[in-house]
Amino acid sequence: MVVVAAAGNEGTDVVDAIPAAIPEVISVGAVNTPVIWDQGITWFSNRGIRLDILAPGSDILSLCAEGTNSAPLESHYARMEGTSMAAPHVAGVAALLLSRNPGLSVEAVRQLLRSTAKPDRSDPLVVAGGLGLVDADAALAETRVLEAHLSRPYPGEKITAPIEIQGTIQGQGVTGWELAWGAGRTPSAWHSLQSGTSAVVAGTLATLDPRALPEGVVTLRLSAKDDRGKIYRFDSVVEADFLALQEPALPEFLVYALQFKPGQPIPIKGRVDFSRPAPGTPPWVLPGAGWKTVGGDSGPRNGDLGTWTPDASLVAGHYTLRIRVEDGGVTRTDPTVVHLEPALISPQWPKFLDRNPMGGVILHKDGSGNPELGAITNIRHPAYVPGVYHRFRPDGTPLPAPGMQWGSDETSVVADLDPAIPGDEVALIDYQSILIMNGSTKVREIPLGNSQALGQSPILTTIKGAPALVAMTFLVGQDYRRLLTVVRPDGTSVSPAFPLECDASGGNGFFDNVEVLVGDLNGDGKQEFIVPKKATDSSWKLHAYSEEGQLLSWSTPEQPGIVRSMILADVDRDGFMEVLASHGAGMAVFRHDGSYYPGWPRTDIQGNLICADLDRDGIEEIIAVEQTKLHVVKADGTPWSSDWPQVRGNSEGFGFFESKPAVADVTGDGRQEILVMETNWNDGWILNKWPDFINNWSRTARMVALDTMGRTVKAWNLPGTGSLAAFDMGFKATLGDFNKDGRLDVGACFYTAKTGSGVTVMEGGGLTVLTTSAPWAAGTHDWPCSTGDAWNRRTLLRDPKVALPGITGGMMVAGAWPVEIQAWNVPGRKEVWLEVDGQRVGSALLQAPFRLEWDTKASGLGNHAVQAFARTGSGGVVASPKVTVQVVDKIATAFGDLTLTQGRNPALAGEALTVEATLQPATATGEVSFTVGSASPVRVALVQGKASLALAKLAAGTHAVTAQYEGASFYSASASAPLSLKVWDYQLAASAAEVQVAPNQAGTVTVTLTPEGGFAGDVQLTCTGLPADVEARFTPLASGADGKQTSTLSLSLKPKPVPPSPGWLLGGGLLGLGFLAPRRRRRTVGAWVFGGLVLVGLVACGGGGGGSASKDKSYNAVVTGTWEGSTRSCTVKVVVKQ
């Protein structure tokens, strides 16, 4: 039976595609339809030595079932692409051949198709040997064919000893055949093994001794020739296998490479099978980076080959190890690749699990106060293997790992939930209960009724002064119905209304799985539960429940799609929380009353949300991570700067892949960076021993830290497992001081996946723990994990702050003193006021900015205690630090030294100069009068204690500048010390207006420098405006008795070059492209034209001469003096005599 199969659509080697790779199958690749692109193999078609034939495979009209295609034609037709579209073309031609001659064998059909195909030369990786586009007419017109087939060794067989090569050459008109081998899958050279002139049927063609072959893949080619001179070929790939570097295993893709920490030994295992080592040469060595030999031995070996300890100073990156064997003059190698990461906190990281711990790295304290790391996996389908609570010491040492009922994909709560038990507890939603663990011990299990985990992380909050756990789960069998449970850690409910049922938002919350937020919206000290509830089939709106479980009147406008991410933050620090929510159609920010915040909603921003003060200037930034963009915007939604958004990835949508970001100062520069996962697309080199192909489907993933300008300031490759790669989903980062060394550490979890075959299959997950050189201080990093904090509140919480920015201890005040009060993050702020000596001053301030005037006279002269206050929505009071100031009748003022903010001292006449006066205290008001020499005073207003005067162009000489403050209100008068400004100048003059220069006769002129204003600078003289053949030289400036300085300028003609001897002279070597110009008769221009290039040479004949005399020429030479960048000049007429 003739079997025709599609080669596959992964853009890689067909040798891995079944059934197309089976030798008895005719494999078909796809070419582009000529009406769309130039004919050639498609980007997606598999290729390689086992590809037999090509056929049209793009934009093919095909049948489809109604409703199964997004763009059908007349409901039952569609245009499709793929090798599955190409295979039927070939199957149809094969059927025609068999209908005409039913006795044709599989090989006869294959050779008829191949030998009559239209050769395709569009891609060097297609393989040589006649592969091309199927030609039905030519195949049916062919009357006879030769069979050429290799039956042994089998394709892909590993050869370690001599083997017989068996095959068949038969058919009408056999005149000869040849068997040859070549290195690799696409050999550049062929080596003959055997040849013959007669047919062979299932016989031995040659004996192959692998010791004559290079290690690795070898292609065998059988070529048969008939009496018409037509060639028929059959190729097969085998492997010469004498040595293998087995551990660390060679990764199929670079992203699969195992990761190690430099400075730690890496065990090397493998196999070396050689019986004829080169005399005096160890048959195997283990070179490392730069092929430095790191081990060796003699004789065969199977197992431990040695170790490589990478130098601790090696930087992060991929490094190649190889085993090399010298055998009878033949060198054989086998490589592998590892990834070195110096930032690993210990050599025992990373860890790889059978599932991804999507909840992230859990950082908590054990019963002795020591740090412990954890990660929880969820139930694995379809085998329903329960998840595990994996536990580790910070150095990676494993701890007992208890099993779960199901497990969890959510981030766990970490807190001391049971004071009677030492250490922290970890609370998670495990199937239908809240599970509280302390180490490997189950502390408590709180049932959740007929509901189960939704993907929403549990939340820890404080209600009525005591801790409470919040869980949102879904009711089994009820679409869009959720169960909101609020309980104490001991399992008792905080209110009879809980648990309560509520509607869902109409979706599954794929991105953050957020279906409830908990926070104090209006600052009254009570928590609200914010829940997205379904409004219509395509919209939702936010509602709120009270601590007692009552539905409040609070709600927001309707929003489209489903909720993707929600957080709480006081974006303007006015004491009232805003709700930030993104969805499939954009993003909105809502005030504490449910209305839109100014500037929102927007449709150009969405994704996972966090909030932080990145540059620590007291103003919050909103961060949104979507698939290809990372936004940083202000509270009103406008971009933070022109650097944002940052765009990564490509049209496939991969870049940041909506990763869960974190924010911390990972560089230690005082500013905060954004930590996200970044995916690089099309960066997966197939790392088999013969890298013939580039795989278009592989991805690489890394964790990056972006600074305030969007630049990548740190990057860490996420590791592979040897057979799996870090994948761009499920990434979460947790930051802290894991090993208590005072430095910031980063724990990251991520999916691992089998990729590179067109379809990505997630097969587990990874954990890695990295360290940085940045210091760690708890509470100084705004968003150190994906859920904001260890309580999963997804809320940016700031400590309330009241301050008096213009008042400092010990300062003097007088009169009606202006006071400004800052009140930031005061929950539900009601009023702000000022107290002096415990007594209120003026009325309460209700709206920012909080400004008032304090009548200091009413308080009396002397020392007074000043303090500002703000009242919270719950009635509490937040106070500023108390400051003692002195009330005086008049505040003394004093000038600092006058300074030049523009220009220099000494200056050159005409330069721009600006003088600045600084008056203390800076609160002084009024004007400063500047006086320059005997000129009239100029009045300038004080601005924050400073006044500046731009001086008019001053003449040469010394000028005294003073500043006078006449006092204002309750500030006393004062004057500055004078600033002595020196203004210099000088003039240049030539002793003669004209100087003559002739051959063998120099001309001279004296240049005089006349100083003004006490000028004492070092002037450099230059002369410009002269022809190239006139040389100018100055003598050093010399001072005379009159204070003037003089220099002699000498001008002379440079010697002319000696004429060439008679003969031909090629002048200039000019090579040009263009047309020849008309030639004069007095001089000969030779031209040679080569393929459009014109080589032109000026040719002069020696001897001869003559011609009329030239006229004298005049030039205006400029003599320039330069002092510290400033210039003065004079001119001289120079006459050059011929």
Structure description:
Among the domains are: 1-143, Peptidase S8/S53 domain (Rossmann fold, 3-Layer(aba) Sandwich), CATH 3.40.50; 161-241, Immunoglobulin-like (Sandwich); 243-292 and 299-340, Sandwich (Immunoglobulin-like); 448-606, 5 Propeller (Tachylectin-2, Chain A); 801-887, Immunoglobulins (Immunoglobulin-like); 894-977, Sandwich (Immunoglobulin-like); 985-1052 and 1111-1137, Sandwich (Immunoglobulin-like). The chain has four helices and 89 strands. The longest helix is centred in the N-terminal third of the chain and has 18 residues, at 83-100.
Radius of gyration: 43 Å
Report the average pLDDT across residues. 84
Number of strands: 89
CATH superfamily of the domain at 448-606: Glycosyl hydrolase domain, family 43
CATH architectural grouping of the domain at 448-606: 5 Propeller
The rough form would be described as flat
Terminal Cα span: 102 Å
Strand proportion, as a percent range, falls in over 45%
Structural class, judged by helices and strands? Answer: mainly beta
CATH class of the domain at 448-606: Mainly Beta
**Residue windows where pLDDT falls under 50 for at least 5 positions:** 122-130, 275-292, 506-512, 682-698, 1060-1109
What helical percentage do the residues reach? under 10%
Stated plainly, the CATH topology of the domain at 448-606 is called Tachylectin-2, Chain A
Major sheet description: 10 strands, mixed
